[in-house]
């Protein structure tokens, strides 16, 4: 039994029928190459009927081959054929088309005369409704529902759902949760197809959102979104249990790259190029250079320096609504403070930690000094801190970029503190402030700080002090120098002479980038040795701290992928993680340092 399939290009209909049928629709026609249907679909833009007709006719004239494309003048009214495939023209719909199908443009006369049967197993056309082209209302009423355009946030949410939740007992559970969280009303099969038959098929190179699968399965950054999903499922009385272990798609992950179908391979290449182009455009629009770091979109520049960091990972997954997506500032777990004893107003001693210059003068920090008590005074303090002639500041400043931190002081008596920025003593709402947000407020609402281009994306201000419990380790420039003198691999990667020779972080980063450092076994081991030098073998250190260190080091020192990683990334990364763990040399740990290393690498790269 023959069957039919239909879809629409704007207001011109395409009739798809079984090529084995001997009978074909009548009408004036020209030959049309079915292999070019994807190109045809891309070229059809929102235009008048007459322009669409002329475009189709010209395209068909250039594509004479085997199948019939019947085109009639748009001055004739068209028949609405069917709305049976509401989601057929999805972004990946051409991957589900049968290559044996042929496409035919039909008119109001040819539809009535065609002998091709419909899905109803009859030749009846009683359901066809003539469109009134004189009525805009009628046209809107007859127009089929627009297909959903999948956004990056949609795919991130799908990736999160399918990685951490098991829907094997109820295949509708994840689609129902997805529709609830996004306020959409998509068909369940459409949602499953998007992930299983499109995202998994084309893999993370085509859909960067899938790189979430490379992070550690127990990554704490995702706990908030996972708890929210579980809560939503409980409210809806949906059985959606958490997975106990990671899901492995095996060779199915990105197998479109080696598909036998030429069209599928071409589609894969198009998606990869599009992902790369989008990443490049995003980078150019933000800064001179870009890379991934810490699960957020970051940028930092001072009067002479400019840094930008971009990522599509972790906590950009939010409870999203179609009307808008909330902006999000992620938690950073690792920060650094550099100083020289006797040359900084902020005071440090091992027993009390860091005390800001203002409170050191006042004899210490008191509860009544909390900035929440006087918001207007807080803005004045921030302006004073950021101004070069502001005097003693009530804040202690830290940075989340290691290279930018090390570029500030380069003398033998320079010291560097490694700080747990997520420590409970620093997590109160009136304790930690992101300079980016405060600068934006000062500029837009108070017309202050207009004299500088500084953005403050890497800088955090901590009110009053940093207690010793939040300080993971303190090292010195001389300690790093001694380490480099005893380990040639560390010396080559750390590049201390470049820091000592140049005076700005942008120039330092540029010169280090010229060394073209690649991630191999020696590099991975050296990063582990440096992590140990920065105190990350401390028992209080968590997986997130190690991952942050790996990410900021790979980003700052422009360490790139080696040729070994071009094929089997997962296997090679695991092997490199073993070298990193050997360099870190932390035998007893509540977490797997190898997984933390892989997580940091993934966050720093666009794999």
TrEMBL record:
InterPro entries: DUF7587 (IPR056009). Residues 334-480 form the DUF7587 domain. Pfam families: DUF7587. This is DUF7587 domain-containing protein. It comes from Lojkania enalia. The lineage of its organism: Eukaryota, Fungi, Dikarya, Ascomycota, Pezizomycotina.
């Amino acid at each position: 039994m023959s069957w039919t399939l239909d879809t629409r290009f704007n207001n011109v209909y395409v009739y798809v029928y079984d090529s084995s049928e001997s009978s074909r629709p009548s009408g004036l026609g020209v030959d049309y190459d079915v292999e070019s249907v994807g190109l045809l679909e891309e070229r059809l833009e929102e235009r008048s009927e007459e322009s669409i007709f002329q475009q189709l006719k010209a395209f068909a004239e250039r594509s004479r081959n085997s199948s019939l494309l019947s085109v009639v003048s748009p001055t004739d009214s068209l028949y609405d054929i069917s709305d049976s495939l509401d989601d057929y023209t999805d972004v990946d719909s051409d991957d589900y088309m049968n290559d044996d199908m042929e496409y035919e443009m039909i008119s109001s006369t040819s539809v009535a005369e065609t002998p091709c049967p419909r899905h109803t197993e009859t030749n009846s056309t009683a359901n066809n409704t003539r469109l009134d082209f004189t009525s805009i209302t009628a046209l809107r009423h007859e127009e089929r529902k627009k297909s959903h355009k999948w956004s990056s946030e949609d795919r991130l949410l799908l990736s999160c759902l399918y990685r951490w939740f098991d829907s094997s007992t109820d295949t509708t559970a994840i689609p129902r949760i997805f529709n609830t969280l996004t306020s959409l009303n998509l068909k369940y099969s459409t949602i499953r197809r998007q992930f299983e038959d499109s995202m998994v098929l084309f893999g993370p190179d085509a859909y960067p959102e899938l790189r979430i699968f490379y992070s550690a399965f127990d990554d704490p950054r995702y706990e908030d979104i996972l708890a929210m999903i579980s809560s939503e499922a409980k409210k809806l009385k949906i059985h959606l249990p958490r997975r106990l272990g990671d899901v492995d798609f095996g060779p199915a992950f990105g197998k479109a790259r080696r598909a036998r179908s030429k069209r599928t391979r071409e589609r894969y290449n198009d998606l990869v190029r599009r992902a790369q182009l989008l990443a490049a455009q995003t980078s150019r629009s933000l800064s001179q250079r870009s890379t991934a770091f810490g699960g957020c979109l970051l940028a930092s520049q001072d009067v002479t320096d400019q840094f930008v960091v971009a990522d599509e990972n972790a906590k950009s997954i939010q409870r999203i609504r179609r009307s808008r997506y909330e902006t999000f500032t992620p938690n950073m777990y690792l920060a650094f403070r550099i100083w020289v004893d006797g040359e900084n107003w902020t005071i440090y001693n091992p027993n009390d930690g860091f005390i800001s210059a203002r409170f050191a003068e006042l004899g210490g920090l008191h509860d009544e000094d909390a900035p929440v008590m006087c918001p207007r005074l807080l803005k004045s303090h921030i302006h004073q801190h950021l101004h070069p002639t502001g005097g003693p500041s009530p804040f202690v400043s830290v940075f989340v970029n290691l290279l930018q931190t090390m570029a500030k002081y380069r003398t033998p008596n320079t010291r560097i503190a490694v700080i747990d920025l997520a420590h409970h003593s620093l997590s109160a709402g009136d304790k930690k402030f992101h300079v980016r947000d405060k600068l934006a407020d000062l500029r837009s609402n108070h017309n202050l700080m207009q004299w500088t281009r500084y953005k403050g994306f890497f800088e955090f201000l901590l009110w009053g002090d940093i207690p010793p419990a939040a300080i993971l380790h303190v090292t010195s420039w001389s300690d790093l120098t001694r380490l480099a003198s005893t380990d040639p691999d560390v010396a080559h990667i750390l590049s201390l002479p470049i820091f000592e020779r140049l005076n700005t972080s942008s120039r330092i980063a540029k010169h280090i980038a010229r060394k073209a450092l690649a991630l191999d076994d020696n590099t991975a081991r050296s990063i582990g040795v440096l992590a140990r030098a920065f105190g990350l073998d401390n028992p209080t250190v968590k997986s997130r701290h190690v991952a942050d260190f790996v990410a900021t080091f790979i980003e700052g020192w422009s360490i790139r992928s080696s040729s070994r990683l071009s094929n089997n990334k997962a296997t090679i990364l695991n092997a490199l993680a073993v070298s990193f763990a050997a360099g870190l040399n932390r035998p007893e740990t509540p977490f797997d340092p190898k997984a933390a290393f892989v997580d940091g690498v993934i966050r720093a790269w666009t794999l």
